[in-house]
Write a structure and sequence with these properties.
Bound molecules: ligand MGD, iron/sulfur cluster, molybdenum atom
Number of strands: 28
Largest sheet: 7 strands, mixed
Mean pLDDT: 96
Strand order of the largest sheet: 6-5-18-17-16-7-8
CATH class of the largest domain: Alpha Beta
CATH topology of the largest domain: Rossmann fold
Distance between the termini: 56 Å
CATH architecture of the largest domain: 3-Layer(aba) Sandwich
Number of domains: 4
Radius of gyration: 24 Å
Structural class: alpha/beta
Amino acid sequence: MGKDRKGYQRTYCGRMDHGGCSLLVKVEMGKVVEILPDGEGPLSRGYICPKGLASKEKLNHPERLKRPLLRKGPKGRPEWEEISWDKALDIIEERFLGFREKFGPESVAFCHGMPKGLDLFVMIRLANLFGSPNVVMVQDVCHAPREIAGLHTCGFYPVADLKGPARALILWGSNLSGTNEEGQVFRLLSERLKEGARLIVVDPILHRSYKDRLDIFLPVNPGSDLALALGMINVIISKELYDKEFVTKWCHGFQELKEHVRGYVPEKVSPIVGIPPELIQQAAITYATTKPAAIVWGNAIEQIPHNFPTIRSLIILMAITGNLDIAGGNIQPGEPNILRPGEFVKSRLFPEKTKKMLNSYYGTIPRLMTVPPAYFRKAVIEGKPYKVVGAYFQATNPLITWADSRLTEEALLKLDFVVLSDVYLTPTALYADIVLPAATQFEFNDIGHYGLGHGFILARPKLVEPPPHCWPDIKILNELGRRITDPKYWYEDYEDLLKEILGPAGLTLEEFMEVGILEGKMDYQKYKKRGFKTPTGKVELYLSRAEELGVSPLPEYKPVVPSDSNYQLSMTSMKEPLFLHSSYRWVPSLRKLVTYPKALLSPKTADLYGVKEGDEIIIETPYGSITHILEINPDLKDDVVIVKHGWWYPEVGSKEGYHWKKSNINMLTSINILGKEFGTPNLRGIKCKIRKLD
Ligand SMILES: Nc1nc2c(c(=O)[nH]1)N[C@H]1C(S)=C(S)[C@@H](COP(=O)(O)OP(=O)(O)OC[C@H]3O[C@@H](n4cnc5c(=O)[nH]c(N)nc54)[C@H](O)[C@@H]3O)O[C@H]1N2
Ligand SMILES: Nc1nc2c(c(=O)[nH]1)N[C@H]1C(S)=C(S)[C@@H](COP(=O)(O)OP(=O)(O)OC[C@H]3O[C@@H](n4cnc5c(=O)[nH]c(N)nc54)[C@H](O)[C@@H]3O)O[C@H]1N2
Ligand code: SF4
Ligand SMILES: [Mo]
């Protein structure tokens, strides 16, 4: 990477979504003054979004956190005293070691939001060395279901090969143009479409970016994707469109599957999913007969309690059509030759971890490596299965982002001691005892995409100094590690942690920052040599270990939410394309583009409820109510409300608690129904009603 184009330096975008676009950054007088797209970016090829362009505004924001803060008033109130780093670390050390002594190491939880950089893995290392099995993460609604359902079904996590020669693509509950989900920058999908690949969209809404390039739109009822997939499997098998050779040689339980899906003919599935049977047939035929084809999947398939069978049904589609592990299908990218995450986090020093994790008491599925937030809060509030009294939150805003914000508030109030690191004071930070000011993208050397299964890691070099008292999370954790765990696993200089990872590649940190990207070797159809990594060595259409895992061997559709005549609409969510979750509503140029939280309705549904574009509407579920501004969208299915996720109001100020309840979608969600496998609550397809605010 290094210097390029007359004083611009190259880096990869980070901490604005999963990251991946290459940026050219101009630094003057120690400040980032300009960011441009980089035409030579291997993933983005000249693409950049407004978030990437605006990322420099975070650095010099007047209200950025600049000093460690110690609580002086009651929780929820912004009453603080500025303290030194030494004092902050002394207090954290004393409290965490005190808890370990009194209640055991598991009484301290380490909580992380969306993975942003190497800090997540350093946090897991700290938790392991401290002896706490409880790293709490949003993985219950984000990626763990896909990865682990993949491991149990075909032995790997199958991601769409957008660099390959796909001739058909299904965007299944993924808004790639707005989210660049799974590190798949939208530019790659656009290139495949330009080459003539066919496009099928499965989503209650048809976003503008796909309209001109679309072949088939399946406007699915929120939460019913499993029924749709089973209907498509039925069509593919009954019309004998499956890949007979692959199925015979490499699939376990095809006969059982064939019998099982007889019950899911398109006519029967149609009223559940709200799509005409002919369209289900047409989509199934297109996908099965246009090879290679890839499914690009998003959060919608996993933010539901029945995510395990839903994801399995999609992997079954990939398998029976012969699209698994082929170029242009759904693949397992090879990883670059770097230190493996398990070694980096020192998991071998904590062999009893999985047995001790809070979720193991609820019988979640093996291989889930982080604790679902639902079980963490139950432990804090009820003391079951054991007490959790301390927590360290890093790069997360759970009061807004975890399902059931009321329960999160209760847990935050109940915890004896809360530490939180962020770049800005958030609603959650108002409940912390100590707030730590973090350095962020551009201000320290970081590695992007490590351990995410995307087949590459990206260099994010330090380009400017952070404000004098802001520390990179990696440095904070390194210092804490030296104090509360065996110091021999930590360093004088926290950058040695990055060097550990690069060791096997034979690269120094400087060399890696120069190279920019390390990619694994692409190798298809690996199963031909060594089979699939499952108990039967085949893709398990029928799960051979179902009984032992306590799950059904074939994906079965059962409605999750009973119908309720008081709540006739179905609510679901999507991300704001111009913000990351709850982050950056305080970045001026982005906020100018999206001033209010908006909820979407179709014209017909809006008419039915007597509401107009621009009205402030109340959205109510059995769990709570919030308001959003109404936007009417003709491409949204009737009777569905899409509510944008992540809203609070930084401009209102911390004294007013940022009005964090007012428009926060997770005031409308609950953990009363949780999926057994991953402890996932329902975020897609929640019964609700709306009315105009008087
Ligand atoms: N209803 C509903 N709920 C959802 C979702 C949904 O679709 N619907 N989506 C879910 C998903 S997929 C996810 S991943 C989660 C996300 O949940 P979170 O990860 O909790 O959400 P973020 O808003 O990304 O929180 C990140 C915080 O990190 C801070 N931050 C940014 N950079 C840094 C840094 O360098 N260091 C530190 N210490 N902090 C930093 C930001 O300021 C922000 O406050 O939300 C989940 N919740
Ligand atoms: N701009 C931006 N980019 C992001 C993020 C962000 O917050 N903002 N977050 C990052 C993270 S952590 C993640 S996990 C990814 C998520 O990336 P995506 O999965 O693409 O994100 P979402 O917007 O949650 O959902 C995608 C689509 O699902 C549709 N949908 C809603 N309910 C259903 C349903 O029941 N079935 C189907 N089939 N579709 C449904 C929505 O209308 C939306 O178009 O994005 C990453 N990138
Ligand atoms: S799409 Fe994502 S990686 Fe690309 S510039 Fe925008 S925020 Fe950064
Ligand atoms: Mo996510």
